[in-house]
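Continuing from the previous page...

OK, I double-checked the sequence for N-acetylmuramoyl-L-alanine amidase against my notes and this is the correct one:
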Amino acid sequence: MLETRHIDKEKKYTRKELLGLLGLLALGLAPKNTAANLLLKKSSSMMRVKTICLDAGHGGHDPGARGSRSSEKDVALRVVLRLGEKIEKELPGVKVVYTRTTDVFKDLYARPAIANKQNADLFISVHCNSFRRRAAQGTETLVCGFNRLEEQEVAMRENASILLEDDYEENYNFDPKDPSTLIVFSLMQRDHRDQSIRLASLMQKEFSRSARVNRGVKEQSLAVLATAGMPAVLTEIGFISNPDEEKFMLSSYGQNQIVQNLYDAIVNYKKAVES
Ligand SMILES: [Zn+2]
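Thanks. Re-ran it with the corrected sequence; updated structure tokens here:
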């Protein structure tokens, strides 16, 4: 087991530092008290799901995608709060931590930092999709990985929240749209790739069982997942740009169904990794 107690979990790294750490990581030479070690924490053989960090996308002056009646930030928060309540009530021994419980703006780097600080075993970010064609519909769940640039549409949109941060240049010291930044993001989650894909696949399976259109599991270079030191997924629970799906996501019935899908996926994931 790696020493993880004294890690500076909230340090922000410049791109140069990150590339250096990743190089050392690849050579097995990473110094002890760095985020690089945090990334190596919790191999699948010692997985327990005791703490889950739920992240409602966007917030405050970042509304995310807009539907005709609502904003992504509000739908995401409602679903996250309901999901957290259900987990705490029905999964004894599992603690839930939130990146936000109200309509506030949080920097993308601050979200996984909360999960890291709380030693969370899972990081789940909830978002709504959007597309210029109103007929686009369905659910998809993303893990941090690298695909061809033209396939990074969701990542580009979700990462753009960085640009709304007051001091993003100071926080990141790199351009979120630079292709090499996207590669760094994907490398950082590499050690959790299999478990992240496992959870993402279970989520998509549950959405399918509820007859939602299944757009699958995708790998994209997502800033909000990159520095999470645990399996991390970003789930797009439906298209807010599609009037029918927006109505569904705003309804109590729809929210209950989405929450049940995510909850069942978490329970199945927990059983699988702990057995
Ligand atoms: Zn979003």
